[in-house]
Amino acid sequence: MQAKHQRLILGIIALAAVIAAGFLALVAFKKQAAYFFTPTDAVKAHLPANRNIRLGGMVERGSLIREKDGVTIHFRVTDGYQKIAVSYRGIVPDLFREGSGVVADGHFDPSGSFTAETILAKHDERYMPPVTQQQAAATQTTLQEK
């Protein structure tokens, strides 16, 4: 076989290997991607009970109810069109409040309500942890005094 043909075959094999590796990486990434359903998407999808999903949206103002045990809360997640009642038992993140963004990991009960096992509070790009806010305020005060 000529050297030209050997290089061509080697190039084809290398190209096939790169395509196969890319395909495998894409399949693996798709399985690991963490998408969430908005309330509208969840209602349209008619998701089966006890299937774990992520539900994302805004905590509806006026919907947050804390039970006397101190760890159980009930609230509604909305995307502006649909609302879904959510129950959660556990400690909520500091940023969790009415009107803020939330992603809840959990499942729908046979009754249609959503039981969250984990709650993630979303924040905007201007968020600063409380310690950083205190440091920034102290720096601002120091600069104003000078």
Task: Furnish the topology, listing elements before pairings.
Layout: H1 3-32, H2 39-45, E1 53-59, E2 65-66, E3 72-78, E4 83-89, E5 101-108, E6 114-122, H3 130-145
Parallel strand pairs: 4-6
Antiparallel strand pairs: 1-3, 1-5, 2-3, 3-4, 5-6
Question: How would you describe the overall organization of this protein?
Answer:
- With 146 residues, this protein is an alpha+beta fold.
- It has two domains: 1-33; 39-122, Nucleic acid-binding proteins (OB fold (Dihydrolipoamide Acetyltransferase, E2P)).
- It contains three helices and six strands; from the N terminus they run H-H-E-E-E-E-E-E-H.
- A five-stranded mixed β-barrel has the order 1-3-4-6-5.
Annotation keywords:
single chain; 146 residues; alpha+beta; OB fold (Dihydrolipoamide Acetyltransferase, E2P); five-stranded mixed β-barrel; 3 helices; 6 strands; 36% helix; flat; iron; heme binding; CcmE-like_sf; Cytochrome c-type biogenesis protein CcmE; membrane
